[in-house]
């Protein structure tokens, strides 16, 4: 069945100046509670996969229960709703309070271009966004979301702001640009575990019918049309730059791209097609092969009648027929322990009774608790024409009809995200004994720069009421910006102080610190001292 449809759809601002530099300077920290509590939120450090689960750096299972906040893929080139009377930080606060622990951010390549301008911003309620580029605004959203323990998935939604495309490239945005922009983003946010990965291209789909099909296929072997092969090329290129990212791969609509779907009135000739981006039925036979193991997440889309009236909604057995349909298109990958599923988009206006049943049954199918399948609901925005949003037109009032169905499945973010620290630390204890350990590793290096990572762990019996961290770098090394921290430099000595939420470290808790430096290829960490 062919499904034509359309839909409206880290680092702080200072790092944007580094976009064209040889290396971006980044400092990132994940502040973790003891591993036993990690699964309650979005986990500790970068994420990876294990069978059909997403796990954190400690091995604890993580479930992403998120929301799509679109706009950066449109002519505005930034998040919609910034024109409202509800400030951007308050909107993220509300997302977190409702239980959404992840934000999927759609963008178009137009928003990444030099000189791109963000429009549709209420300067009165968002004065801190005045004059910022789309990427600088994204930096601020990532920083603030990370401070609340949330995660960010970047979604290449459109090759240009003009609209979606069946293939991952168009004349104005060739494959080379698609991959180069992804590599830029992967390097820009390297060392920042708030940004967990790349949703490579939104909703590849069939276009045309036999013999003139030009759309995306899966496993057909044509490099210009085979989405599975393109996903491998882009995913591996990204992992060369940032091996810590997850790679989210959507399905297609028709595995052949439409070549076998002749639409001659004879159903026996019709290919088994589904939602744009929602058909992963061939992924078991033709899996996506990435050079870095445990990084692949399959991310189908699924919608209700408010988007398109599929035949299965008219089945006499509805909704009992739906689990078998979901199994066929994508659920089998999860049930057979092939890979995790992150349902990247699903939504409805809930106007039709059949849609309410659909949403209720879909959430049951995804499962409850931390072991259920991950998801990001479409959408936060009320201006999605075929689904509406979680918030209403004032961007403040919650649509309780939708929220009440989703609420039992949401796992709120816990704790803070990125902060700061270093290879040498001091701390002031609140009583008891103070001791700590430090582990350090060099993550990456290139001509003119390097990336290091250190973890400071409170091994004492007291909670640190404050801490600062410092390290000595070779002469000539520069740190342009410290994300989520105040950093002072005195010659080759850098001292960082974390924000309020990052200062109190309970016994057993740790601060993981990543930094990228220009002007050297390595550094020797100093000793760690506490109290």
TrEMBL record:
<dbReference type="InterPro" id="IPR018087">
    <property type="entry name" value="Glyco_hydro_5_CS"/>
</dbReference>
<dbReference type="InterPro" id="IPR012291">
    <property type="entry name" value="CBM2_carb-bd_dom_sf"/>
</dbReference>
<feature type="signal peptide">
    <location>
        <begin position="1"/>
        <end position="38"/>
    </location>
</feature>
<dbReference type="GO" id="GO:0030247">
    <property type="term" value="F:polysaccharide binding"/>
</dbReference>
<dbReference type="Pfam" id="PF00553">
    <property type="entry name" value="CBM_2"/>
</dbReference>
<keyword id="KW-0624">Polysaccharide degradation</keyword>
<feature type="domain" description="CBM2">
    <location>
        <begin position="429"/>
        <end position="531"/>
    </location>
</feature>
<dbReference type="InterPro" id="IPR001547">
    <property type="entry name" value="Glyco_hydro_5"/>
</dbReference>
<keyword id="KW-0326">Glycosidase</keyword>
<dbReference type="GO" id="GO:0008810">
    <property type="term" value="F:cellulase activity"/>
</dbReference>
<dbReference type="InterPro" id="IPR008965">
    <property type="entry name" value="CBM2/CBM3_carb-bd_dom_sf"/>
</dbReference>
<keyword id="KW-0119">Carbohydrate metabolism</keyword>
<dbReference type="InterPro" id="IPR001919">
    <property type="entry name" value="CBD2"/>
</dbReference>
<keyword id="KW-0136">Cellulose degradation</keyword>
<comment type="similarity">
    <text>Belongs to the glycosyl hydrolase 5 (cellulase A) family.</text>
</comment>
<protein>
    <recommendedName>
        <fullName>Endoglucanase</fullName>
        <ecNumber>3.2.1.4</ecNumber>
    </recommendedName>
</protein>
<keyword id="KW-0732">Signal</keyword>
<keyword id="KW-0378">Hydrolase</keyword>
<dbReference type="GO" id="GO:0030245">
    <property type="term" value="P:cellulose catabolic process"/>
</dbReference>
<dbReference type="InterPro" id="IPR017853">
    <property type="entry name" value="GH"/>
</dbReference>
<dbReference type="Pfam" id="PF00150">
    <property type="entry name" value="Cellulase"/>
</dbReference>
């Amino acid at each position: 069945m062919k499904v034509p449809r359309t839909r409206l759809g880290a680092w702080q601002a200072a790092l944007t100046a580094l976009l064209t530099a040889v290396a971006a300077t980044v400092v990132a920290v994940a502040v973790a509670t003891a591993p036993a509590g990690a699964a309650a939120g979005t986990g500790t450090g970068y994420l990876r996969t294990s069978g059909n689960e997403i796990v954190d750096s400690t091995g604890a299972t993580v479930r992403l229960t998120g929301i799509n906040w679109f706009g950066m893929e449109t002519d505005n080139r930034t998040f919609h709703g910034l024109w409202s009377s509800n400030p951007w930080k308050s909107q993220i606060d509300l997302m977190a309070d409702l239980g959404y622990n992840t934000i999927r951010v759609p963008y178009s390549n137009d928003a990444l271009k030099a000189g791109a301008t963000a429009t549709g911003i209420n300067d009165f309620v968002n004065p801190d966004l005045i004059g910022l580029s789309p990427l600088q605004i994204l930096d601020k959203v990532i920083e603030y979301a990370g401070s609340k323990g949330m995660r960010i998935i970047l979604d290449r939604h459109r090759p240009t702001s003009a609209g979606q495309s069946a293939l991952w490239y168009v004349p104005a945005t060739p494959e080379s640009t698609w991959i180069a922009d992804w590599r830029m983003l992967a390097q820009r946010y390297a060392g920042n575990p708030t940004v967990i990965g790349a949703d490579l291209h939104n909703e590849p789909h069939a276009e045309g019918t036999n013999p003139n099909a030009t759309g995306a296929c899966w496993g057909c072997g044509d490099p210009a049309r085979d989405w599975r092969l393109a996903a491998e090329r882009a995913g591996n290129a990204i992992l060369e730059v940032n091996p810590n990212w997850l790679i989210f791969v959507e399905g297609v609509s028709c595995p052949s791209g439409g070549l076998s779907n002749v639409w001659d009135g004879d159903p026996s000739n019709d290919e088994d097609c589904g939602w744009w981006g929602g058909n992963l039925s061939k992924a078991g036979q033709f899996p996506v092969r990435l050079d870095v193991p445990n990084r692949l997440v399959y991310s189908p889309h699924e919608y209700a009648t408010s988007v398109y009236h599929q035949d299965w909604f008219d089945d006499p057995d509805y909704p009992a027929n739906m689990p078998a349909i979901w199994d066929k298109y994508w659920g089998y990958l999860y049930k057979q322990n092939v890979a995790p599923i992150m349902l990247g988009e699903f939504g409805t206006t809930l106007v039709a009774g059949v849609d309410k049943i659909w949403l209720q049954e879909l959430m049951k199918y995804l499962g409850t608790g931390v072991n259920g399948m991950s998801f990001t609901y479409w959408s936060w925005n009320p201006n999605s024409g075929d689904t509406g949003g979680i918030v209403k037109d004032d961007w403040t009032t919650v649509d309780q009809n939708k929220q009440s169905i989703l609420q039992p499945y949401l796992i709120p973010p816990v704790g803070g995200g990125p902060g700061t620290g270093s290879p040498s630390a001091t701390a002031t204890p609140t009583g008891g004994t103070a001791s700590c350990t430090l582990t350090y590793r060099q993550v990456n290096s290139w001509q003119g720069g390097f990336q290091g990572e250190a973890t400071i762990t409170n091994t004492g019996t007291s909670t640190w009421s404050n801490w600062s961290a410092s390290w000595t770098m070779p002469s000539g090394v520069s740190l342009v910006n410290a994300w989520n921290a105040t950093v002072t430099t005195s010659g080759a000595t850098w001292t960082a102080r974390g924000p309020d939420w990052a200062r109190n470290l309970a016994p057993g808790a740790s601060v993981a610190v990543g930094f990228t430096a220009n002007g050297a290829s390595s550094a020797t960490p100093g000793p760690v001292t506490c109290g």
